[in-house]
Amino acid sequence: MIEFTVTDIAPMHPSPILTHAATAYQAPLPGPGKFTRWTGIVWHKLSTHAAYLISPLCVLALWTWLTHAHLFPPQIAVAPLAVWHDFGARLSSGELPANLAISLERLIFGFAAGALPGIVFGIALARSARVEAYCGFTFAALRQMPTLVMIPIFVLILGVDESLKIVIVAKASFFPIALAAREAVRAIPRSQLEVAQLLGLRGYMLYRQVIVPAIVSGVVTGMRVALGRSWLVLVSAELLAADSGIGEMMELARESLQIDTVMVCLFVTGTTGFLLDRLLRVIELTLLRRRLA
Amino acid sequence: MKSTVSPHTLGARSRRLDWRMFILPLVLLSAWEWASHQDAAHTYAFTPLETVGTTLWELLRGADLWINLGASLKRTLWGFAIGVLLGISCGTVMATSRYAERAIAPLYHMLRQIPLIGLIPLLSLWFGNGECAKILVVMLASFYPVVLNTYEGFSGIDSRHIEVANVLELNRTWRLFQVLLPAALPSIITGVLQALPFAWISAVGSELFFNAGSGLGALMLNAQAGARMDVLVIAVLAVTVLGSAMNTICVRFARRLTRWERS
Lengths: 293, 263
What we know:
The complex is a heterodimer. Chain A contains twelve helices and no strands. Helices cover 78% and strands 0% of the residues of chain A. Chain A has a single domain, classed as Orthogonal Bundle (MetI-like fold). Chain B has a domain at 77-205 and 241-262: MetI-like fold (Orthogonal Bundle). Chain B is mainly α. The interface between A and B is large, with 75 and 76 residues.
């Protein structure tokens, strides 16, 4: 006698859409119908992914129509094609790559300057009662201070040259990473540490064999958060005070009312942030998989 | 024997004040004070603490700080309220209708990649430097996390809840309000929680970058132009204190609201 309920078959269903609980009760997608099984699956996949393109294409069409209808002055509404041409022009003139490279260089240096001490400090906070007692409170208090709002303070102390951007990025990345490292060390099961103690692991070997492997994926997660914030804060700092970089390029375009260039910069900034996040995400997943394996 | 067990495993941490935690702040403050008494260039950047004290007293007694603080708070609340309402509705629609999900999700994920502060040059060209543009930034700042958490809240609903709804043959409205929304509520609240401090910081940030009008950000921008480090420090402290207060209140509130979840 076969007897099963909805819960029994739900996890077995191959479609990820149906494991999505909220939509599980909806009518299933139109079936393959007259197609054979394989063409049906291909068609299904194609239509699922193509469906995600519909609304962006609609927005693009609407945007084009709005600019051609001259409902807004051309300084405010620029056609998508004009933005595309501007993108090509800035790319071939070398202006865009040069500014992006400068911004990325600042990001990398600042991030390294914040991340490495952040990891060390985070581990120290979790591992040593003394460090926690002396620095825990100050760490918690300083962590609350929003970097974005602190930019004017840094400008007064450091001026508007290169060190400003590096320090701001370092500050923005230090705290989330230190926090992630601290939480990751604290999350190590006590039993694991006891076994390590029993085996006589201490010092370098303890870190090498137990602690570092256990915290690495947590730290990378913290890095993702930190990198996203750092990028935002860096572009903001460049908007406010810089002579180069993608943010400064945007600010310059705004002042000369070149809305197409502003949009190009926005697009590049967004894409860069997305790609950086993807990169760390891939690292994160790889590490996680290796740990689980 | 020297214990190698980390401190957190030694039972609950004591709530007793530990004098050691004051040492580092004191050292930092004295370093600041020492730097401020070096020469004119240092005094420019590191204002002596006594000056910060007097300025604080003046600002607290005067109207300047309060007016700007009020303006920032008002902006935050408006943007936050609109952003949360839109976010919850948008997330709910996305989670309950597949067509809406197909339509909204790609746009949402594309727009989300753009740094909020980076949007400001574009927004100022479109909407000017007025109230509308700033509230829009705050709204977006609270919108994004709320949509994400609402959507995830619906996705994480225990399938048994939905089966009960199926058995009871609830219609869409009843299903939504009696079953789905309550089940998704903890996650929605988490999103709203994340959104409030975020909205606050982006409100002050937007004032800083639109450089017009009132608000703590505008106060800071003026202070920066006049090299008034004392005002800057006080403004940043005010933003920080209010931000963490909002955070604490939100966490408490959320715990109360979702008590049934844990019991």
